Structures are given as C-alpha cells and as structure tokens.
Automatic annotation (TrEMBL):
GO terms for molecular function: dCMP deaminase activity; zinc ion binding. Keywords: Hydrolase, Metal-binding, Zinc. It comes from Paenibacillus cremeus. InterPro entries: APOBEC/CMP_deaminase_Zn-bd, CMP_dCMP_dom, Cytidine_deaminase-like, dCMP_deaminase, dCMP_deaminase-rel, Deoxycytidylate_deaminase_dom. Zn(2+) binds at residues 87, 113, 116. GO terms for biological process: pyrimidine nucleotide metabolic process. This is CMP deaminase.
Amino acid sequence: MTARKDWDTYFMDMAYMASTRSQCSRRHVGAVLVQGKKLLGTAYNGAPMGVPDCSEAGCMLVEEFELVKQDGEEQVVKKQRCIRTIHAEQNLLLFTDREDREGSVVYVTDQPCWTCANMLANSGIVEIVFHRSYPKDSEKVNALMEQRQLKFRQLEHYEPPAGTIAEVRN
C-alpha cells in the first residue's frame, strides 16, 4: 500500500495539473485556492479567452529596467516579461469570489511575481505556498509578504507529478 499524500503535496499536485493547460512557451504556472481542505478554484497562465495564445501568436515581450542594490552598489537590471498572458494567480482571482478567498490558502507552482504578489496580498487570502522560486522579484515579494504578515512558504523538497513539468525559460 502506498503512503497517503500530505495536504501540501495533494494541493500542489493539483496546481501542477492545472499548469498543464498553459500554452505559454516560457513558463507553465498553475494555482489553486483552498479553504480548509476544500478546493475552491483552479487556474493557469494564458491569453484571455478567445485571443491567440503564445503558442499561436508568439510571446509579446516587453523589456523593463529596475534599479537594484547588489553588494552595496546600485545596478540597472534588465528584465523581459511576456504581457500576452494573464498570470495563473490573476486568473484565480478573476474566477473566484472574494468571500471564498477570505482566510484561504493559494498553492501556486511558482513564486508569484511582484504584480501577482500585490494582488494576492489584497485578496483576503492568509497564505501562499509555492514550489519553484522566481528570483527576478523574490526579494521584493518576500518583503511584501512580511509587511502584510501573510504566511509565505516554499515547498523545497516537493516532487511534481510525472508529466507536469515544462521547461522554464526566463
């Protein structure tokens, strides 16, 4: 008999299953909303409904520049972001009700970007659990979560279900 999965693994598995719906060529991200042990919603990153996605129309990349401090010195860092897709966390918030989110937990395959972290911080949830880190925004997002006193944790020793991992391109 196989061992029963713990709740973190169970819900993160669901987030990875949701990510398999993504057509983004850069990163497949899935998210689930959980209240207690009850699944309230799932989402993945992709273009708006009825609009060609990245696999059909290519990524719509924009370049951004950010001033960061590294080793005590300020440096300009260039970032590329695809703006064709709505992020999984954003879709999750669009397709769930505020009253369902109050006191809930979001499981997401990847650490939220700055914009998604801001939205989640204001959504009524109390915890974000993620698997893969997102170094581009990590420092800012960690500081925000601490300020908002939201539980924010990474499942470092988690193994996603077979067939759910797509190559990540930054």
